[in-house]
Every structure is written in structure tokens, then in C-alpha cells.
Amino acid sequence: MTVLPISFYPDPILSRICDPIEVFDESVKEMSADLIESLCAYGGLGLAAPQCGIAKQMFVCQIGKIDIMTFINPVLEREMGDELTTQEGCLSIPGVTGRIKRNDRILIKAQDITGAPFSISLINTDAIAFQHELDHLHGRTMFEVMDRVQKLGKRNSYIKKVKKWKASQKKTK
Length: 173
Fold this sequence. Notes:
Strand order of the largest sheet: 1-2-3-6-7
CATH architecture: Alpha-Beta Complex
CATH class: Alpha Beta
Number of helices: 4
Number of strands: 7
Strand content: 25-35%
Distance between the termini: 32 Å
Number of domains: 1
CATH topology: Peptide Deformylase
């Protein structure tokens, strides 16, 4: 297992719509293991393949207090609960949080690492984390799902910080 490097916003991979996984071979199991290892190393509730530079429809997500599940080619089947506004962060946009509207109860379907289909109902934090990671597979970051006012202020502030950091890295070389 390998800890994969994180792709940081505005890396173009984060705005790319990911390709479905069609062949379930050993490489799929390895990618899942690497994503789980990376999630454990970086912390957080979930990690999507594009956040590690891989444009495939896979993510791992902590479900409940202990289990980390792999979701391949996931689909949000139905929203069943209330829409809540929650505070979210993202490993690909460090230091930024935003208020995001998400449904607190959902029904999803996906495939596991062998290709077997499954469906599951998710509630509360599990549902919110799933929707956040699903956005990554569709080329959306928090900035694309925040309301307009938040997006402008937080994205511009983040980009300024990144430019300042990059400039300081050039001076130290």
C-alpha cells in the first residue's frame, strides 16, 4: 500500500469528470488499498481518486465510527431526508471551510472492489461525506457547490494564499 500525494486546487484533475471503472482486476484492489492508506495518513472522512491524480470513479469514505468503505461507480439514487447546511472542509483545499447544502438521508448504489453491486442508505455525516466525495467524481469541488457569495470570497482568498506560497518557494530555491 502506498500513501498517494494529494492534488490541490486548482489542479485541473479536480475539475475533470472521472471515467467509470469497467474492469475489476488487481489494479482496482490496489487503488482502493492506496486510497484507504492515504485517507488514514491524511485524516478526513473521505478521499476520492481524482484528489490523488486518478480520474476514475472511485472513492473511499469512513462510514460510521470505524469502517472505511470503497465506492466504485457510485450513483445517488434518492434523497430522502432534509436539506441541511453544514460546514465542510476538503483535503484538496486545505485551510478552507464552507457552508454547503446537502441532504441528510440518501439511498445510493455502487460497486465494490470485485465489481459486485450494492445499495445502502446513508444518514447524517455519512450521507454528507458521500455527497462531497461524489462531487469530486463529477469534477466539482466545494467551490462549485458553495453559494456564490461564499465561493467568490473563499476561492479568491485561497488562490492568493497559493500564489504567495508558490512565490516564497521560488525565493528559497
